[in-house]
Amino acid sequence: MLQRLPVGIQTFSELRSRDCLYVDKTEAIHQLITMGKYFFLSRPRRFGKSLLLSTIKEIYQGNRALFDGLWIADRWDWAKIHPVIHLSFASMGYRDLGLDAAIRLQLQSIANNYGIHSDNGGSIVRIFAELLEKLAAKHGKVVLLIDEYDKPLIDYLDDIPLAKTNQQVMKTFYSVLKDSDPHLEFLLITGVSKFSRVSIFSDMNNLADLTMNRRFATLTGYTQQELEHYFAPYMPELEQYCQLSRAELLEKIRYWYNGYTWDLQTSLYNPFSVLNLFANGDFRNFWFESGTPTFLPKLMHRDKVYRLDKFKVDELMLGNYDLETLQLIPVMFQTGYLTLQSKDKRGMYWLDYPNREVRNAMLIFLMAEWAHVEPAYTTPMVVQLSDAFDDNDMPALIEVIKTMFKKIPYQIFIKDREAYYHSLIYLTFFYLGQYAEAEVNENNGRVDCVVKTATHIYILEFKLDKTAQVAMEQIKSRDYAGAFRDDQRPKVLVGINFSSELKSVDDWGVCQINCVTRFS
Length: 520
Known about the structure:
Elements: H1 12-17, H2 26-33, E1 38-42, H3 49-60, E2 84-88, H4 94-97, H5 99-113, H6 124-139, E3 142-147, H7 151-154, H8 160-174, E4 184-191, H9 199-202, E5 208-209, H10 224-230, H11 235-242, H12 246-257, H13 271-280, H14 286-289, H15 295-302, E6 311-313, H16 315-319, H17 328-334, E7 339-343, E8 349-352, H18 356-371, H19 375-390, H20 394-406, H21 410-415, H22 417-431, E9 436-442, E10 445-452, E11 457-464, H23 468-477, E12 491-499, E13 504-512, E14 515-519
Parallel strand pairs: 1-4, 1-5, 2-3, 3-4, 11-12
Antiparallel strand pairs: 6-8, 7-8, 9-10, 10-11, 12-13, 13-14
Helix pairs in contact: 5-6, 15-18, 18-19, 18-22, 19-20
């Protein structure tokens, strides 16, 4: 019988007691807990951080039975037990109570569990400091595990004043750690982002950042070897359902869910997506659908960014960011929407979408943000666009494009018409994916869009406040079709003009086999 797939289970003891599949990470964990004392790890949401901390907790609490059959089982002194403080900001209730009150309740609960008297009326600094000191004196040095430390900030990136209030509470809370070294055995803090002006990074200069450390690149996430080994028993059913061979199935899984890297050596799978794939038996945008922060598309809209493939940045830009000057690229990298692709000789990193799941889902959200519609409405529009090309139906194509622009508030479009015009056109055609290329570079210039179907090749040029004839003349004068001369499919040239006054297509023309038709 197959082991259960631990979809949504982030507690190691529950996972093991329910006989769920566990991809053994204990060798890397052993290396971590035996090589140092203070660590920070940044990884995207649902990438295994909580399970990692839960596993470390059970190791330090000496629960040997949970590790039967795992690498660490016979390589750890299970008699050496330490008290563990495991704080998870994701479940702390700060939205209802406020961050200070939520932390206070959590610390008091831990103190009660260990039989330690706590000054309930004191500040969180005093409560935290006394808890560490008294717990170490009574039970030995403390293992401190802090999960999703930055969630009280990330949850309010669309409300910066409240995020800054929480930031100050966090700075006060973490200031305790600097003077608590005598009471600590091990410290690991995880989060999505590395915010500046939080005292764990400014005060604790001995806090080692594991985020891009090659020795711990696979501490979370699944490697190719792990995928093929641990999930082999689950593959036959999916092969049969998808009517794919093993090699074809592995390639499709890689295309959808692989691509994350923090060392440019090892490519990792998103564990949440892989588990959901085998649990549901279907390829979907599991990770993206599980809770994309609404501020991301808004931040991209603010900066007039509508494409994120192939960005070039330096390492300092990736390391941290500040609430006062929130920058898009480090946010996108640290939250997992972009990943490393390569590093040039000058130390500059190239970033790109990690896989199809993230790329297509982000395009849907961006299209929705620019077009002022719900994300559920964007996919049908793209499907209609695809059908129009497949049917060689140019009037239907124009109607879809007109529909895209209808819902944009007039005053917004007029104020920023160039951004709206370029962004929506690019996003829509880029999302067509397998046979559409937007902004294609040719010897004679840049073609706005090339779409290839089984029967035709469409070459499209878009203009704003000009005419379709101007667009068509550019296609012909620069011989954009010449790049496809060796392809036997008929070439269809399409010139489209947008009117900023009408906020719609007002003129378009099509040319095929030396025949020109123009419409207004």
